[in-house]
Amino acid sequence: MNVSIDDVVLPGDHCPEIVAAGEKGKVLLGPGLRKEINGVFITKPGVLRKRTPNTYWVDNYQKRYVPSRGENVIGTVVQKAGDIFRVDVGGSCAASLSYLSFEGATKKNRPAIKTGDVVYAKMLNASKDMEPELVCVDSHGKKGRLGVLEEGFVFKCSLNLIRKILNPHCPLLNSLKNEWPFELAAGMNGRIWIKANTMRETLALGNAILGSEYLSNDEIKSMCKNIAVLLAGHVS
Amino acid sequence: MAGVKKKPQLPKSVLDMKFMKKTKERLERELEDTQDHGSLYSNIITNAMRSASGNYVTEASFIFCENLMEGRLSFKGMNPEIERLMEQEKLKEIPSGEMQKDIPDDILAKKFQAFNKRKRASSTPSKYTMVKKKKSH
């Protein structure tokens, strides 16, 4: 079936609009779209989205993470195997993380990582047929925001929620950031790590994030206000 | 691919110079190599295959499609290291052309005019007057 932008689409549908754009200039096909010889086809059920000038993707509900290159994820170290750590990121198989891909790590100076540690790492390599590979440094060898996440609390959520809270237009983090000190790491694999000074604050943050999944922007703002008031009431 | 830029090449006159002998040989070798690759697979790779991807670029991640933020954040001094990085990133986002002004242009112009007038009325003693004063002591 022919579909256009902002329609609900199903796998197998095709979009002549994108083909027309592709004849004029460069087109970026995001997740859920596939170029075949005779057109552009949908491969995921969801809503077809466009960002001007030329980016198209399918916005779908998903809980299973499919590794893709360049994404930051939160993983748990499940095994130490010689030179590499096996890290569970929620994909079809565990990802590998070399002990040398940490800031300042050398063959003699190994990073102190145990099984069970939570790491925030970048997908270096993710192909269909191979084990994904993670790194905890950028191309300059600096750790930046990556590395082991100490203390804190990890929970899982849908991949949509991660995209929702990391969207620059989402009011959630903006309305929470002036309320109490907290730290947050959101992995594109549907895991969120949070850390705050007290248990009550951590719970409030976690509930605010999970509660915002099906709320509109205005509802999120009022929910954050409520949570902040409740929290302030308990402290005093 | 039409979008790929050609590598900058040295002019022939430069390559003919004596000290460029090795570079010239290397460039010739490279040219031969690439031509060989083309002929090696010419019976397998068709023109349709070359232009198959055309204008389409596939991207498997939502990050670039939806222009998502970095996922590691800290607020109100929980992790100063992360906050410093966030600050640096914010500074980069502000376009560098026009700087943010604390004082508008017209007020600054007025103030400076007044300042210049005052300055001319009682200008600071020059180097020579200072020397004269010292001598008189």
Concise description?
Chain A has 236 residues and is α+β, with helices and mostly antiparallel strands.
Provide keyphrases for this structure.
heterodimer; A: 236 residues; alpha+beta; OB fold (Dihydrolipoamide Acetyltransferase, E2P); Ribosomal Protein S8, Chain: A, domain 1; 3 domains; five-stranded mixed barrel; four-stranded mixed β-sheet; 5 helices; B: 137 residues; mainly alpha; 2 strands; flat; RNA-binding (chain A); Exosome_RNA_bind1/RRP40/RRP4 (chain A); hydrolase (chain A)
Task: Furnish the topology, listing elements before pairings.
The complex is a heterodimer of chains A (236) and B (137).
Chain A: E1 8-9, H1 16-24, E2 27-29, E3 33-36, E4 39-42, E5 46-51, E6 55-59, E7 72-81, E8 84-88, E9 95-98, E10 118-125, E11 133-135, E12 147-149, E13 153-156, H2 159-166, H3 172-176, E14 182-187, E15 191-196, H4 199-211, H5 217-235
Parallel strand pairs in A: 2-6, 9-11
Antiparallel strand pairs in A: 1-5, 3-4, 5-6, 7-8, 7-10, 8-9, 10-11, 10-12, 13-15, 14-15
Chain B: H1 12-15, H2 21-40, H3 47-50, E1 56-58, H4 62-66, E2 72-75, H5 80-93, H6 105-121, H7 127-136
Question: Could you characterize what this model shows?
Answer:
Chain A: It holds the Pfam family KH_6. Chain A: Belongs to the RRP40 family. Chain A: Keywords: Cytoplasm, Exonuclease, Exosome, Hydrolase, Nuclease, Nucleus, RNA-binding, rRNA processing. Chain A: This is Exosome complex component RRP40. The complex is a heterodimer of chains A (236) and B (137). Chain A has 236 residues and is of the alpha+beta class. Chain A has helices at 16-24, 159-166, 172-176, 199-211, 217-235, and strands at 8-9, 27-29, 33-36, 39-42, 46-51, 55-59, 72-81, 84-88, 95-98, 118-125, 133-135, 147-149, 153-156, 182-187, 191-196. Chain A has a 5-stranded mixed β-barrel. By secondary structure, chain B is mainly alpha-helical. Chain B has 7 helices and 2 strands. Chain B starts with 11 loop residues before the first helix and ends with a helix. Chains A and B meet through strand 2, strand 3, helix 2 and strand 14 of A and strand 1, helix 4 and strand 2 of B.
